[in-house]
Amino acid sequence: MSDAAEAGGLADDRALLGRTSTAEKVADILRSRIAEGYFAPGVRLSEESIGGALGVSRNTLREAFRLLTHERLLVHELNRGVFVRVLAVGDVDDIYRTRRLVECAVVRGLGQPPFALGGLEAAVADGEAAARAADWTGVSTANIHFHRELVALAGSARTDELMRSVLAELRLAFHLVGDPRALHEPYLLRNREILDALTAGERATAERLLARYLDDSRTRVGAAYADAVEDPKD
User: Fold this and answer.
1) b/e string for 93-130 if b means 16 or more Cβ within 10 A?
2) Would you say residue 206 has pLDDT above 70?
3) Count of C-beta atoms within a 10 Å radius of residue 184
4) Full-model pTM
Protein backbone atom coordinates (compact mmCIF):
# COMPACT_ATOMS: atom_id res chain seq x y z
CA MET A 1 0.00 0.00 0.00
CA SER A 2 1.38 3.39 -0.99
CA ASP A 3 1.81 6.25 1.47
CA ALA A 4 -0.84 8.21 -0.44
CA ALA A 5 -3.33 5.35 -0.14
CA GLU A 6 -2.65 5.12 3.59
CA ALA A 7 -3.31 8.82 4.03
CA GLY A 8 -6.43 8.78 1.90
CA GLY A 9 -8.09 6.02 3.88
CA LEU A 10 -7.11 7.20 7.34
CA ALA A 11 -8.11 10.80 6.77
CA ASP A 12 -11.73 9.67 7.17
CA ASP A 13 -10.91 8.52 10.70
CA ARG A 14 -9.56 11.88 11.81
CA ALA A 15 -12.96 12.99 13.10
CA LEU A 16 -12.93 10.08 15.58
CA LEU A 17 -10.12 11.72 17.49
CA GLY A 18 -12.15 14.77 18.50
CA ARG A 19 -10.50 17.51 20.48
CA THR A 20 -8.77 15.24 22.98
CA SER A 21 -6.49 13.24 20.73
CA THR A 22 -4.61 10.54 22.64
CA ALA A 23 -2.32 7.66 21.82
CA GLU A 24 -5.02 5.28 23.04
CA LYS A 25 -7.53 6.65 20.53
CA VAL A 26 -4.99 6.44 17.73
CA ALA A 27 -4.24 2.86 18.78
CA ASP A 28 -7.97 2.07 18.68
CA ILE A 29 -8.21 3.35 15.11
CA LEU A 30 -5.13 1.48 13.93
CA ARG A 31 -6.23 -1.69 15.75
CA SER A 32 -9.54 -1.59 13.91
CA ARG A 33 -7.82 -0.98 10.58
CA ILE A 34 -5.48 -3.92 11.18
CA ALA A 35 -8.42 -6.14 12.14
CA GLU A 36 -10.22 -5.14 8.93
CA GLY A 37 -7.16 -6.04 6.85
CA TYR A 38 -6.63 -2.45 5.72
CA PHE A 39 -3.07 -2.81 6.95
CA ALA A 40 -2.09 -6.35 6.01
CA PRO A 41 0.45 -8.54 7.85
CA GLY A 42 3.98 -7.58 6.84
CA VAL A 43 3.06 -4.03 5.75
CA ARG A 44 5.31 -1.20 6.95
CA LEU A 45 3.44 1.66 8.64
CA SER A 46 4.57 5.11 7.57
CA GLU A 47 4.79 7.59 10.44
CA GLU A 48 4.59 10.52 8.05
CA SER A 49 1.49 9.46 6.11
CA ILE A 50 -0.45 8.06 9.09
CA GLY A 51 0.42 10.97 11.36
CA GLY A 52 -0.56 13.42 8.66
CA ALA A 53 -3.83 11.65 7.88
CA LEU A 54 -4.88 11.57 11.54
CA GLY A 55 -3.43 14.96 12.40
CA VAL A 56 -1.40 13.74 15.36
CA SER A 57 2.16 14.35 16.46
CA ARG A 58 4.96 11.92 15.83
CA ASN A 59 5.29 11.31 19.58
CA THR A 60 1.60 10.45 19.89
CA LEU A 61 1.79 8.10 16.93
CA ARG A 62 4.91 6.40 18.29
CA GLU A 63 3.15 5.84 21.61
CA ALA A 64 0.22 4.27 19.74
CA PHE A 65 2.68 2.05 17.89
CA ARG A 66 4.21 1.08 21.23
CA LEU A 67 0.81 0.09 22.62
CA LEU A 68 0.03 -2.07 19.60
CA THR A 69 3.48 -3.63 19.71
CA HIS A 70 2.75 -4.61 23.31
CA GLU A 71 -0.47 -6.23 22.04
CA ARG A 72 1.61 -8.18 19.50
CA LEU A 73 -0.11 -6.59 16.51
CA LEU A 74 2.95 -4.61 15.40
CA VAL A 75 6.65 -5.28 15.45
CA HIS A 76 9.50 -2.77 15.41
CA GLU A 77 12.47 -3.71 13.27
CA LEU A 78 15.69 -1.82 13.97
CA ASN A 79 16.58 0.66 11.22
CA ARG A 80 13.59 -0.47 9.16
CA GLY A 81 10.51 0.81 10.95
CA VAL A 82 7.23 -0.54 12.31
CA PHE A 83 5.41 -3.39 10.57
CA VAL A 84 2.15 -5.25 11.00
CA ARG A 85 3.15 -8.50 12.60
CA VAL A 86 3.22 -11.77 10.67
CA LEU A 87 2.31 -14.56 13.06
CA ALA A 88 4.36 -17.70 13.39
CA VAL A 89 2.44 -20.95 12.96
CA GLY A 90 3.06 -21.66 16.65
CA ASP A 91 1.41 -18.35 17.56
CA VAL A 92 -1.88 -19.54 16.06
CA ASP A 93 -1.76 -22.70 18.15
CA ASP A 94 -1.03 -20.67 21.29
CA ILE A 95 -3.90 -18.28 20.59
CA TYR A 96 -6.33 -21.21 20.44
CA ARG A 97 -5.01 -22.68 23.67
CA THR A 98 -5.66 -19.33 25.34
CA ARG A 99 -9.12 -19.06 23.84
CA ARG A 100 -10.10 -22.53 25.01
CA LEU A 101 -8.96 -21.82 28.56
CA VAL A 102 -10.83 -18.52 28.75
CA GLU A 103 -13.99 -19.12 26.73
CA CYS A 104 -14.82 -22.50 28.22
CA ALA A 105 -14.21 -21.16 31.72
CA VAL A 106 -16.62 -18.29 31.03
CA VAL A 107 -19.39 -20.66 29.96
CA ARG A 108 -18.70 -22.98 32.91
CA GLY A 109 -18.99 -20.10 35.37
CA LEU A 110 -22.15 -18.48 34.03
CA GLY A 111 -24.32 -19.23 37.03
CA GLN A 112 -28.04 -19.81 36.71
CA PRO A 113 -30.09 -19.03 33.59
CA PRO A 114 -31.54 -17.06 31.99
CA PHE A 115 -28.43 -15.46 30.53
CA ALA A 116 -28.15 -12.07 28.84
CA LEU A 117 -27.77 -13.35 25.28
CA GLY A 118 -28.76 -10.30 23.23
CA GLY A 119 -25.21 -9.68 22.01
CA LEU A 120 -24.75 -13.32 21.01
CA GLU A 121 -28.07 -13.36 19.19
CA ALA A 122 -27.13 -10.24 17.22
CA ALA A 123 -23.74 -11.70 16.28
CA VAL A 124 -25.30 -14.95 15.05
CA ALA A 125 -27.88 -13.03 13.02
CA ASP A 126 -25.17 -10.79 11.53
CA GLY A 127 -23.11 -13.81 10.53
CA GLU A 128 -26.05 -15.52 8.86
CA ALA A 129 -26.98 -12.34 7.00
CA ALA A 130 -23.39 -11.88 5.81
CA ALA A 131 -23.31 -15.48 4.56
CA ARG A 132 -26.51 -14.95 2.56
CA ALA A 133 -24.77 -11.97 0.93
CA ALA A 134 -21.62 -14.05 0.32
CA ASP A 135 -19.73 -11.51 2.45
CA TRP A 136 -17.17 -13.84 3.99
CA THR A 137 -15.19 -11.03 5.58
CA GLY A 138 -18.44 -10.01 7.23
CA VAL A 139 -18.93 -13.59 8.42
CA SER A 140 -15.47 -13.50 9.96
CA THR A 141 -16.22 -10.21 11.70
CA ALA A 142 -19.53 -11.52 13.05
CA ASN A 143 -17.79 -14.64 14.30
CA ILE A 144 -15.24 -12.54 16.19
CA HIS A 145 -18.12 -10.53 17.68
CA PHE A 146 -19.82 -13.77 18.73
CA HIS A 147 -16.80 -14.84 20.76
CA ARG A 148 -16.29 -11.38 22.25
CA GLU A 149 -19.94 -11.32 23.32
CA LEU A 150 -19.58 -14.81 24.75
CA VAL A 151 -16.66 -13.74 26.91
CA ALA A 152 -18.50 -10.53 27.87
CA LEU A 153 -21.05 -12.71 29.68
CA ALA A 154 -18.46 -13.00 32.46
CA GLY A 155 -18.87 -9.30 33.21
CA SER A 156 -15.12 -8.82 33.56
CA ALA A 157 -13.38 -5.83 31.98
CA ARG A 158 -10.01 -7.60 32.30
CA THR A 159 -11.24 -10.69 30.48
CA ASP A 160 -12.83 -8.52 27.81
CA GLU A 161 -9.52 -6.72 27.27
CA LEU A 162 -7.60 -9.99 27.08
CA MET A 163 -9.95 -11.42 24.47
CA ARG A 164 -9.99 -8.22 22.44
CA SER A 165 -6.23 -8.52 22.12
CA VAL A 166 -6.22 -12.27 21.44
CA LEU A 167 -8.93 -12.09 18.79
CA ALA A 168 -7.34 -9.09 17.09
CA GLU A 169 -4.10 -11.06 16.89
CA LEU A 170 -5.94 -14.07 15.44
CA ARG A 171 -7.31 -11.93 12.62
CA LEU A 172 -3.73 -11.41 11.45
CA ALA A 173 -3.79 -15.09 10.54
CA PHE A 174 -7.20 -14.90 8.89
CA HIS A 175 -6.00 -12.18 6.49
CA LEU A 176 -3.38 -14.50 5.00
CA VAL A 177 -5.65 -17.48 4.42
CA GLY A 178 -6.76 -17.68 0.81
CA ASP A 179 -10.30 -19.11 1.14
CA PRO A 180 -12.25 -17.24 3.83
CA ARG A 181 -15.51 -19.00 2.99
CA ALA A 182 -14.05 -22.44 3.65
CA LEU A 183 -12.50 -21.11 6.83
CA HIS A 184 -15.54 -19.40 8.36
CA GLU A 185 -18.75 -20.84 6.89
CA PRO A 186 -18.70 -24.12 8.89
CA TYR A 187 -18.91 -22.23 12.17
CA LEU A 188 -22.16 -20.39 11.44
CA LEU A 189 -24.23 -23.42 12.40
CA ARG A 190 -22.01 -24.15 15.37
CA ASN A 191 -22.46 -20.62 16.71
CA ARG A 192 -26.21 -21.12 16.43
CA GLU A 193 -25.97 -24.45 18.30
CA ILE A 194 -24.03 -22.85 21.16
CA LEU A 195 -26.53 -20.01 21.34
CA ASP A 196 -29.45 -22.47 21.38
CA ALA A 197 -27.85 -24.44 24.22
CA LEU A 198 -27.36 -21.30 26.29
CA THR A 199 -30.89 -20.13 25.53
CA ALA A 200 -32.12 -23.44 26.92
CA GLY A 201 -29.94 -22.93 30.02
CA GLU A 202 -27.76 -25.94 29.16
CA ARG A 203 -24.32 -24.70 30.20
CA ALA A 204 -22.67 -28.12 30.10
CA THR A 205 -23.88 -28.74 26.56
CA ALA A 206 -22.76 -25.28 25.47
CA GLU A 207 -19.33 -25.80 26.98
CA ARG A 208 -18.94 -29.18 25.28
CA LEU A 209 -19.96 -27.72 21.92
CA LEU A 210 -17.61 -24.78 22.40
CA ALA A 211 -14.62 -26.94 23.35
CA ARG A 212 -15.12 -29.15 20.28
CA TYR A 213 -15.62 -26.06 18.12
CA LEU A 214 -12.36 -24.47 19.29
CA ASP A 215 -10.40 -27.72 18.91
CA ASP A 216 -11.66 -28.17 15.35
CA SER A 217 -11.01 -24.52 14.51
CA ARG A 218 -7.51 -24.76 15.94
CA THR A 219 -6.77 -27.67 13.60
CA ARG A 220 -8.36 -26.10 10.51
CA VAL A 221 -6.96 -22.60 10.94
CA GLY A 222 -3.52 -23.88 11.90
CA ALA A 223 -3.33 -26.08 8.81
CA ALA A 224 -4.65 -23.37 6.49
CA TYR A 225 -2.25 -20.82 7.91
CA ALA A 226 0.73 -23.17 7.64
CA ASP A 227 -0.13 -23.64 3.97
CA ALA A 228 -0.46 -19.89 3.42
CA VAL A 229 2.77 -18.64 4.91
CA GLU A 230 6.16 -19.89 5.94
CA ASP A 231 6.69 -19.92 9.69
CA PRO A 232 8.67 -16.68 10.37
CA LYS A 233 11.36 -16.44 12.98
CA ASP A 234 10.84 -13.89 15.76
Assistant:
1) bebbebbbebbbebbeebeeeebebeebeebbebbeeb
2) yes
3) 25
4) 0.81
The answer to whether the beta carbons of residues 152 and 117 sit under 8 Å apart is no
pLDDT (0 to 100) of residue 16:
59
CA distances from 196 to 178, 189, 190 (A): 31, 10, 10
Half-sphere exposure of 103 (CA within 13 A, CB side): 27
Q: Which residues contact 158 (CB under 8 A, 6 or more apart)?
A: none
Q: Which of 51-65, 171-185, 210-224 has the lowest mean pLDDT?
A: 171-185
Q: Give the bridge partners for 182, in sequence order.
A: none
- Residue 83 has φ and ψ, to the nearest 5°, of -130, 150
Q: Are 85 and 45 in contact (CB under 8 A)?
A: no
CB 64 within 8 A of CB 193: no
- Say if residue 41 is preceded by a cis peptide, omega within 30 of 0: no
